[in-house]
Write a structure and sequence with these properties.
- The structure holds two protein chains of two kinds.
- By secondary structure, chain A is an all-alpha fold.
- Chain A is built from 21 helices and no strands.
- The model of chain A has no long low-confidence stretch (mean pLDDT 87).
- Chain B is of the alpha/beta class.
- Chain B has two domains: 224 residues, 3-Layer(aba) Sandwich (Rossmann fold); 67 residues, Alpha-Beta Plaits (2-Layer Sandwich).
- Helix content of chain B is 35%, strand content 27%.
- In chain B, the strands form three sheets. In chain B, strands 6-7-8-3-9-10 form a six-stranded mixed β-sheet, with helices on both faces. In chain B, strands 2-1-4-5 form a four-stranded antiparallel β-sheet, with helices on one face. A four-stranded antiparallel β-sheet of chain B has the order 12-13-11-14, covered by helices on one side.
- The longest helix of chain B is centred in the middle third of the chain and has 16 residues.
- Classes of the chains: A mainly alpha, B alpha/beta.
- Chains A and B meet through helix 2, helix 6 and helix 21 of A and strand 5, helix 2 and helix 3 of B.
């Protein structure tokens, strides 16, 4: 090769390297721009809280404690336990690291999320936050995002130790990944619950009480998580390879996701402005959650011989959904009966919309009907299924047991929610009844209905009513339905009871119809002129283009 | 800071940027705000004065969409604070009587957070932060933690936060509380500048002399009721208050003293250091008539001075010092 050629070669190499460097620089600049754009659009609370958290002493201290605890654990095990040199001790080490990780994830992160919201209210910064353009959903999501960032930082502190445990053998990567996903989900769920508690606690003494309860709850979660991690690590080999485990996980994830969405919506509703529609999003999620539940109940029935258990499946589902709708109904029927003008602007206005979506409108009457409609749907589906598969189904529980259970369950909830709603409506004529007070009124009503027959039995001389179920206890739904499910319809004189419960339920339903009808009268109201003006300015109607040369523009 | 375009040029067509319509707010038995109505137009500074517990902060919180009225409504740029709080918030900057600062945050980060929270993005956000820091003279302290700021600087920062999204309406609750004289003068200048930009400013303060200097109109509130609205002169005239008059005659003033003492609308007619001083019942029009009558009676008047009533005088006259 001549000198000139070698120079050319050198130049070519240099220019190739320079173009490669340019390429890398361009790529890096693009990445930076992308990151900048993401940061620019990131939730403002997430940005602020992350900045604050990373500078706070509490965070630095906890991070150091976690890091030092992991180092001490690693050195101690390697120094003291000789097994680590010979056996596959990765699992044991992972339990130790998870116990250390559980402390920030189960305790510190959720409690910090709670404190960050409670502190906003204590320091009066919440007022400043609430008058910005941020929605309540964004505020809650931002706080949650900050919890996730902290979670990831703590995880990064423990990750080298987890890698060390993996290298010690005895634990596979899948188990570690699944375990960390569970940890993340648990911490996120607890943070979400803590935020809900933070929105509820508005008065100082409530804050103190809820704060103590929250710490106790989080401590319990922390202590429970350690044995659960141990069990999971030692048993994972068998069930991680089972299909049903993953199906159950999927079902659990559905339940987790819908509950998470429900709690998120509830927390957002708690801090929303009074004229906002706080009920409709919650009702939508409730319907989705119910649909998911019913879908997952149907899955085992598809397996071989699963359909034989249809009666039991319907009964168990009815118990869960009955409790669910009673609790939700107790809150929905405690809502304020008047719709703000803002809510009235977004009411359904088409005929189909008014038929099907009116029940999603806020209000105690629509709330009552929403629960009754869902319960009726559950009862009808249940009855349809047990009749459809009556030929192949096992007779345990028997057909009449399930039919009575569905009917009486429906009647009890209709009666209790209806009476509770009427009582709240009566009380509101004299005093202000908040949603919490309304909910408590429902619970007191249930306790009175359960306790009164017992008191009467105590007062009777013979005392026989105390030990045995009789029609006197028919006002006690829990005992009645328990005896029905456990001992059969004859034990509760179901036929006679149906003549008491069904007419009572229908009467209570009719008594509530006045309010329901009044709430159905609401119609969509027009936009105020000023709002319409601004909307026209912000979103002008597109100009109609002529479709052919002969058509004049309008 | 960018100026806010007033919503109309012609005064008759001008829409008020702040409007309270028969506003009520009860807390149990306490009537914090009762039947309150007034308007503030673009470029106006409206002073809100009243004793502690009069209902100033309550009505300001309602305007700021932090509280709901028991009855009535309030509007910001035509949008109801009850029905359209989101639209109101975009147009309104509220500076409460507390700082509301965060720990472990510096001045720039604080303003950046609120700029983001008001939906400002990218360069627009940076421009807004820079201009607010320049306006409030906080640019030198951009990297300083908020905890280390003096009270006056914190007050500036809070004003900066209030203006970060360039709102057309500013509600300032006791902005001058605890400030030193220099800071007060600077704050007063800032408020005057904001009004020149076309913003409507509603400001409450206990320091009445300051309000009198910067306010176009004042509203006097006591026990939740708006007792008087208008310029200081208008309120003074409406209130039919007494005024102090001093005059000097050529030669002996004793005959004038005697002449004045005979009249019913005069009180405390005295001869002080060559001046005749008396308390006169009536406004400026009545004083003009009186002067004409004195001259008509043959007195040679060389000096006639009526003491203009201060906002403090008007306030003390209009209010009765009631509390609930």
């Amino acid at each position: 090769m001549t000198t000139a050629a070698s120079f050319d070669q050198f130049d070519a190499d240099e220019s190739a390297q320079s173009s490669r460097e340019d390429g890398v620089t361009t790529w890096f600049t693009k990445l930076l721009c992308l990151l900048e754009a993401i940061a620019d659009r990131a939730n403002p609370i997430l940005v602020k809280e992350t900045r604050q958290a990373l500078k706070s002493r509490q965070f630095v201290l906890t991070f150091l404690v976690v890091l030092i605890a992991c180092w001490i654990a690693s050195f101690a095990v390697v120094a003291i336990a000789p097994n680590v040199y010979y056996g596959a001790e990765g699992g044991s080490m992972l339990i130790v690291y998870c116990a250390i990780l559980a402390f920030p994830l189960m305790l510190i992160v959720p409690y910090s999320a709670y404190r960050s919201l409670a502190a906003e209210q204590e320091d009066n910064t919440y007022d400043l936050l609430s008058i910005t353009a941020l929605t309540t959903g964004q505020i809650i999501t931002g706080k949650l995002g900050s919890a996730v960032v902290q979670m990831l930082v703590y995880l990064s502190a423990v990750s080298p130790c987890i890698a060390f445990a993996f290298l010690l053998r005895g634990i596979d990567a899948l188990t570690i990944v699944v375990l960390l996903v569970y940890f993340g989900m648990a911490s996120l769920g607890l943070s979400m619950l803590a935020l809900l508690v933070g929105t509820v606690a508005k008065v100082r003494y409530t804050q103190v009480l809820l704060s103590v309860l929250l710490i106790l709850g989080l401590a319990l979660a922390f202590f429970l998580s350690i044995p659960l991690v141990g069990t999971f690590i030692y048993e994972s080999y068998s069930f991680l390879r089972s299909t049903s485990y993953w199906v159950w996980n999927l079902a659990f994830f559905t339940l987790y996701a819908t509950t998470f969405a429900l709690v998120h919506a509830a927390a957002s509703a708690q801090i929303a402005f009074a004229s906002e529609n706080r009920s409709t999003p919650l009702r939508r999620i409730m319907v989705v959650q119910q649909a998911c539940f019913l879908g997952w109940v149907a899955v085992p029935l598809l397996y071989e011989n699963g359909i034989r258990e249809i009666n039991g499946a319907v009964l168990v589902s009815a118990i869960f959904l009955g409790i669910y709708w009673y609790v939700m109904g107790a809150m929905l029927t405690s809502e304020w009966p008047y719709l703000s003008r803002r809510v009235q602007r977004s009411l359904p206005q088409t005929k189909m919309g008014r038929i099907f979506l009116t029940w999603f409108n806020p209000g105690p009457g629509t709330g009552y009907m929403f629960c009754v409609a869902n319960l009726t749907m559950i009862a009808v589906i249940g009855l349809f299924l047990i009749f459809l598969f009556s030929a192949v189904a096992k007779n345990s529980p028997s057909l009449d047991q399930v039919i009575y259970f569905l009917t009486f369950g429906w009647c009890y909830i209709v009666i209790f929610l209806g009476l509770g709603r009427l009582l709240i409506s009566l009380a509101r004529r004299f005093i202000f009844v908040s949603m919490t007070a309304g909910f408590l009124l429902h619970i007191i009503l249930l306790l009175v209905a359960c306790g009164t027959p017992q008191i009467l039995a105590f007062m009777s001389l013979s005392g026989q009513y105390y030990v045995q179920y009789s029609l006197l206890h028919s006002s006690n739904p829990i005992w009645t339905l328990y005896v029905l499910a456990d001992e059969g319809s004859a034990s509760i004189e179901a036929f006679t009871l149906s003549f008491i419960l069904v007419p009572s339920a229908l009467i209570v339903l009719l008594l509530n119809m006045r309010t329901v009808a009044a709430e159905m009268q609401y119609q969509r109201s027009l936009l105020p002129t000023r709002v319409a003006e601004e909307e026209a300015l912000l979103h002008p109607e597109p100009e109609i283009e002529p479709s052919n040369p002969w058509e004049n523009p309008l | 800071m960018n100026s806010t375009t007033p919503n109309s040029c012609h005064p008759a067509e001008r829409r008020p940027l702040i409007e309270l319509r028969r506003l009520y707010r009860y807390f149990g038995e306490t009537r914090a705000v009762e039947n309150m109505s007034f308007e503030v137009f673009p470029g106006e500074v409206f002073g809100y004065i009243g004793p502690n517990g009069a209902g100033k902060t309550t009505s300001m919180r309602i305007l700021a969409t932090l509280d709901e009225p028991t009855a009535g409504d309030a509007f910001v740029d035509g949008f109801s604070v009850i029905d359209d709080p989101d639209r109101v918030r975009r147009r309104l900057g509220f500076m409460p009587d507390y700082f509301g600062t965060y720990l472990n945050v510096n001045v720039r980060e604080y303003l950046d957070f609120f700029a983001r929270a008001y939906g400002l993005r990218g360069k627009e956000r940076n421009r807004s932060i820079e201009s607010v820091m320049e306006f409030t003279m906080l640019d030198r302290l951009a990297e300083k933690p908020i905890d280390g700021l003096s009270k006056g600087m914190k007050q500036r920062l809070c004003l900066g936060r209030t203006m970060i999204h360039n709102p057309s309406v500013l509600i300032l609750d006791e902005p001058a509380a605890g400030l030193d004289p220099r800071a007060r003068i600077e704050l007063r200048e800032m408020i005057a500048q904001l009004a020149q930009m076309g913003k409507a400013v509603l400001i409450s303060s206990h320091i009445l002399t300051e309000l009198a200097e910067i306010c176009d109109k004042v509203g006097i509130i006591e026990t939740g009721q708006l007792l008087a609205v208008g310029t200081v002169d208008e309120i003074s005239a409406k209130s039919q208050a007494k005024s102090q008059v001093r005059l000097r005659t050529l030669g002996d003033s004793q005959p004038l003293v005697q002449w004045l003492s005979k009249r019913d609308e005069m009180e405390d007619v005295l001869l002080e250091l060559g001046f005749v001083a008396f308390t006169h019942q009536g406004g400026q029009a009545e004083q003009a008539i009186l002067l004409r009558e004195i001259i008509g009676a043959g007195f040679d008047i060389v000096e006639f001075a009526s003491k203009t009533k201060s906002l403090e005088d008007v306030f003390l006259h209009v209010t009765e010092g009631r509390v609930q």
